[in-house]
């Protein structure tokens, strides 16, 4: 195994056989000059440029829909796999008519915007930069372009944050930039906003700034629900290391940031006094009431058994609780304290796997976490291949069901197969992450001499509470030196 100096960045082309083979397409492994940043093309700048290029390719892939598919062809947006929610919701959620999200009631079945407040604000800002007159088709095209430009900024933030989180592994960010599912799904919806805030939160946590990390996680939760799940892994890691003060700051920052964004929209006042605004609750009631939908394991079970699964909310919640409980036990039993990114990936993956719906863009939640948790090109690309198959499969299935008697596309059995492929691909990546936790010597991050570069105050800290036999020889104890150890509930001085 090639040795790496502690002050030298890790070169993936010398540590990863797939990265080394792929580098031959651009002239071979990267040299020390580019690696050490002595030229203008530093890793961060190269990866940002690659991200912009891949994002542009993703926009080109949507070109058939941009021209006609979103407006005149009900199924052509599926046969070309270029569907996007953005142009449809411009008119469908009242932005074209100047309605204010959460305050103005919408005509039709969806009476209020069904997105969290910060995402609604993002959508509203984009509508301000869209012409307020002209053909609706033209305005929807402009609205999609404006949103694409704003989402490109989010994509750049994501790759910069991932690149900088593991100081000695900047080139891992290239996995995010080149991820095919990232380019294909980036402009389907507004998920990149929450992903960017989450990535920024993990970056500042890695710099031992728990309060700022909490604020960013709170803002991310105000844009999408899943980022709040990261507080669970942090709870278990801080419990094991005794870093309660840091955890308290993180939770406080998250709660305050979420409240600052939500309270002005949440609270309404009229002659009867203060009450919770109906428009604000729509996201939460919609998430609770929506039926089983595309891509979920529950849809697969329902279709194969003919059972409607009326209690699916209960089943999904129970599975989520069991999964989180297993992750908590894994954290406390692991021979060495897991890395934050590993647990963050696992808990979000459990949420994705047990949810009632799996929209194609949900893969964006996992990509940065997967890169930080398991920066191995082979495993990442296997998982990405599964996600691309699902991306194509769902659109071909919708083309099949929406094309009348022609039935051009993927039949039900084929769609069920791509759901299984998606589930197995995600489970495979979860399995290798769990293996790295149980066998730390297999973890590529720790094989290079690091402890937890995404862990911030946890990096190198000793354990104070574990279950079973655990690693107790940290490289450096930092400000936790001298803390008592707790084992099986008893304190050992």
UniProtKB/TrEMBL annotation:
Topology within the bilayer: Multi-pass membrane protein
Name this polypeptide is given: DUF2029 domain-containing protein
Signal peptide (from-to): none
Record's keyword terms, sorted: Cell membrane, Membrane, Transferase, Transmembrane, Transmembrane helix
Primary site of residence: membrane
Subcellular location field: Cell membrane
Membrane-crossing residue ranges in chain numbering: 40-60, 142-162, 174-205, 211-239, 312-334, 340-359, 380-400, 415-438
GO molecular function, one term: hexosyltransferase activity
Organism: Streptomyces kasugaensis
InterPro entries for the chain: GT87, UCP010361
Single GO cellular component term: plasma membrane
Family recorded in the similarity comment: Belongs to the glycosyltransferase 87 family.
């Amino acid at each position: 195994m090639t040795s790496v100096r502690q002050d030298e960045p890790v070169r993936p082309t010398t540590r990863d056989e797939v990265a080394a083979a792929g580098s031959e397409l651009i002239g071979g492994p990267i040299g020390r000059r580019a690696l050490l940043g002595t030229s203008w093309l530093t890793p961060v700048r190269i990866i940002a440029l690659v991200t912009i290029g891949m994002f542009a390719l993703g926009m080109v892939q949507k070109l058939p829909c941009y021209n006609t598919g979103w407006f005149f062809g009900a199924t052509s947006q599926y046969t070309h796999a270029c569907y996007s929610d953005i142009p449809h919701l411009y008119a469908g959620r009242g932005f074209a008519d100047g309605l204010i999200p959460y305050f103005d009631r919408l005509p039709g079945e969806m009476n209020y915007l069904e997105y969290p407040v910060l995402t609604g604000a993002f959508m509203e800002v984009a509508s301000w930069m869209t012409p307020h007159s002209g053909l609706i088709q033209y305005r929807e095209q402009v609205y999609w372009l404006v949103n694409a430009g704003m989402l490109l900024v989010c994509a750049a933030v994501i790759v910069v944050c991932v690149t900088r989180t593991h100081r000695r592994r900047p080139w891992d960010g290239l996995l995010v930039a080149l991820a095919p599912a990232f380019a294909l799904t980036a402009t389907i919806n507004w998920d990149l906003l929450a992903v960017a805030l989450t990535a920024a939160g993990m970056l500042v946590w890695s710099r031992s700034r728990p309060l700022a990390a909490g604020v960013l996680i709170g803002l991310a939760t105000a844009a999408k629900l899943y980022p709040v799940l990261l507080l669970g892994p942090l709870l278990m890691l801080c419990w094991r290391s005794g870093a309660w003060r840091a955890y308290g700051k993180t939770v406080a920052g998250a709660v305050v940031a979420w409240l600052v964004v939500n309270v002005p929209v949440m609270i309404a006042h009229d002659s009867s006094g203060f009450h919770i605004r109906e428009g604000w609750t729509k996201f939460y009631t919609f998430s609770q009431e929506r039926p089983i939908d595309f891509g979920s394991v529950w849809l697969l079970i329902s279709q194969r058994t003919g059972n409607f699964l009326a209690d699916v909310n209960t089943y999904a919640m129970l599975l989520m609780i069991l999964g989180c409980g297993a992750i908590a036990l894994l954290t406390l039993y692991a021979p060495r304290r897991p890395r934050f990114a590993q647990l963050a990936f696992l808990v979000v993956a459990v949420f994705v796997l047990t949810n009632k719906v799996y929209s194609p863009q949900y893969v964006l939640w996992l990509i940065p976490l997967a890169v930080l948790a398991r920066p191995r090109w082979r495993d990442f690309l296997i998982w990405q291949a599964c996600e691309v198959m699902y991306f194509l499969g769902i659109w071909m299935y919708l083309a099949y069901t929406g094309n009348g008697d022609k039935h051009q596309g993927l039949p039900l059995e084929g769609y069920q197969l791509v759901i299984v492929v998606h589930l197995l691909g995600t489970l495979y990546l979860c399995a290798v992450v769990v293996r790295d936790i149980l066998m730390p010597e297999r973890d590529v991050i720790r094989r290079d001499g690091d402890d937890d570069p995404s862990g911030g105050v946890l990096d190198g800290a000793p354990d104070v509470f574990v279950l079973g036999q655990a690693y107790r020889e940290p490289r450096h104890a930092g400000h936790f030196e001298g803390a008592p150890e707790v084992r099986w509930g008893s304190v050992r001085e």
